[in-house]
């Protein structure tokens, strides 16, 4: 199958492309800046296309001759990311219809069981993108995940860098909410499986099956990282204040950190595990959160090339702020 991966240079996209190649797919990988493609070991095995999702003709051109689209574009860093994400989704949906694609696969965020108006701007935007793609009429499988565990994942890196820097963790009471992390390997397997599943439109929640409070996840991380950390619960600490302070403690893009922190006030857990039967191969075992943390924290042999490394761990193609201990 010829698959267009929009957002191939991002965390999930850069790890998905080799998985698609291993399955025998032909891949078109899109980049906003084509000069950045060369840092990925697989770049000479795919069709590399420079494309901005806000450029409708370019999006249409990228889809010509394709059978499926994997849409991994999120504009969390912009001043008006919701508008950009909406326009990009409309352009992708238009291109999918015009090119006669068989299916769209989209990776978004888990949707908490709350009224849509109560969602954070980040989650509301991801849900809107899902709705735009689904409304195209092209069969759309929307995969939803909360924290993706792996070195280089923005949510994981925020946890890593804040935990490394803060010996005393001041936790707002609203962080008593729960999260269901999922290893990036299981996300990739589900994305690949979505290209084989019957073409229809529906959403799947992706998770490890392990639900825990954010505070418990931070304790587990500290334990696996060999850190001693004290947690102090503080009532009345507003989400907005925490979202403004968090970027100071990390080297992840500030606006992205703010957007993700604002989502922490809701339980981010799966409504079911049907993705295991419908998207994963028979006998596939989900990676336990503790194992995923250990593998994300492992220091790789620098002599081992990216193509042979554990993709839960760091790759040389990751952004320079990944894995940095902020002191």
TrEMBL record:
Top-rank lineage group of the source organism: Bacteria
GO MF annotation terms: aldehyde dehydrogenase (NAD+) activity
Gene Ontology CC, one term: cytoplasm
Pfam families listed in its UniProt record: NAD_binding_10
InterPro entries associated with the record: NAD(P)-bd_dom (IPR016040), NAD(P)-bd_dom_sf (IPR036291), NAD(P)-dependent_oxidoreduct (IPR051783)
Domain NAD(P)-binding: 7-160
Protein name: Uncharacterized protein YbjT (DUF2867 family)
Taxonomic source organism: Pedococcus badiiscoriae
